[in-house]
Amino acid sequence: MGPLITFYALALLAIVSAAITAFSRNIVHSAFALFGALAGVAGIYVLLGADFLFIIQIFIYIGGILVVTIFAVMLTQGIADVNVSNRAVGVLPALVTAGVAGGVMFYAIIHSSWYHARPGSATPTTYWIGDAFLGPYVLPFEVASLVLLAALIGAIVISRQEVRE
Amino acid sequence: MTPISYFLVLSALLFAIGVLGVLIRRNVIVMLMSIELMLNAVNLAFIALGRQVGSIDGQVIVFFVITVAAAEAAVGLGIVIAVFRNRATVNADELNLLRW
């Protein structure tokens, strides 16, 4: 019973925050509501026994991506700017598209016969993740570090101030 | 133990909200945030299904997805700031320089 109540609380937090992120007219509200959505999903990770990814979610999404996003909001809009342009367009086609995508997923989830997982105790996953990184996933792991390096340099080059003589 | 369909339904809901956000918003930063929502939904499905089959692969792939999301946020927001500096707008409809 306890895990179910926790699940509902975290799911409610994630869904409501995600809705505010996507539908709020104020972009600053969107950015701060993203925090709730990411934190809710992080809590769900704990329920699923993924302790390492919980920490990673907090570090990278909330500590990194969210802060960068808020920086971008502040740099482009201006806090004092009341006229924050974030109106909605094309609501009907968007609703149809999202409804079809969500409906297909719901249908697949409800009508699939999932076999029941063995209820195991929550054990640390770091050993097995490290094992996988140095075993079958060693090449993707190295490529990922290369991608990150390229993205870092690219972001600096793209967003730096152009100096003209 | 919470059934897997609960987690998958939550994932589908988050994904649908992300799709809606990308389609109805014209502010590029909000569109990027909605893409992060969709990536999070996919991560959730990966972890839930990985636990279901008792495999660590789901979590390892989520790690790579988070890596790509971080790169996407850094480069995407860098582009947004560069565009804002040049065009003074972050409205996707006004960024039509390459359109004819």
Can you characterise this structure?
The complex is a heterodimer of chains A (165) and B (100). Chain A is mostly helical and 165 residues long. Chain A folds into two domains: 1-80, NADH-ubiquinone/plastoquinone oxidoreductase chain 6, subunit NuoJ (Four Helix Bundle (Hemerythrin (Met), subunit A), Up-down Bundle), CATH 1.20.120.1200; 125-165. Chain A is 74% helix and 0% strand. Chain A has six helices and no strands. In chain A, α1 (2-23) runs antiparallel to α2 (27-47) and α2 (27-47) runs antiparallel to α3. The termini of chain A are far apart. Chain B has a domain at 26-87: Helix Hairpins (Orthogonal Bundle), CATH 1.10.287. Chain B is built from three helices and no strands. Chain B has helices spanning 4-24, 28-52, 57-87. The radius of gyration of chain B is 17 Å and the shape is elongated. Chain B starts with a helix and ends in a 13-residue tail after the last helix. The model of chain B has no long low-confidence stretch (mean pLDDT 88). The interface between A and B is large, with 86 and 70 residues.
Topology overview:
The complex is a heterodimer of chains A (165) and B (100).
Chain A: H1 2-23, H2 27-47, H3 51-77, H4 91-111, H5 126-134, H6 138-159
Helix pairs in contact in A: 1-2, 2-3
Chain B: H1 4-24, H2 28-52, H3 57-87
Helix pairs in contact in B: 1-2, 2-3
| Helix/sheet category of chain A | mainly alpha
Number of strands of chain A: 0
The top-level CATH class of the largest domain in chain A is: Mainly Alpha
Low-confidence stretches of chain B: none
- Tell me the β content of chain B: under 5%
What is the chain-wise order of helices and strands of chain B?
HHH
CATH architecture of one domain in chain B: Orthogonal Bundle
Q: Outline of chain B, from the CA principal axes? A: elongated
Report the CATH topology name of the largest domain in chain A: Four Helix Bundle (Hemerythrin (Met), subunit A)
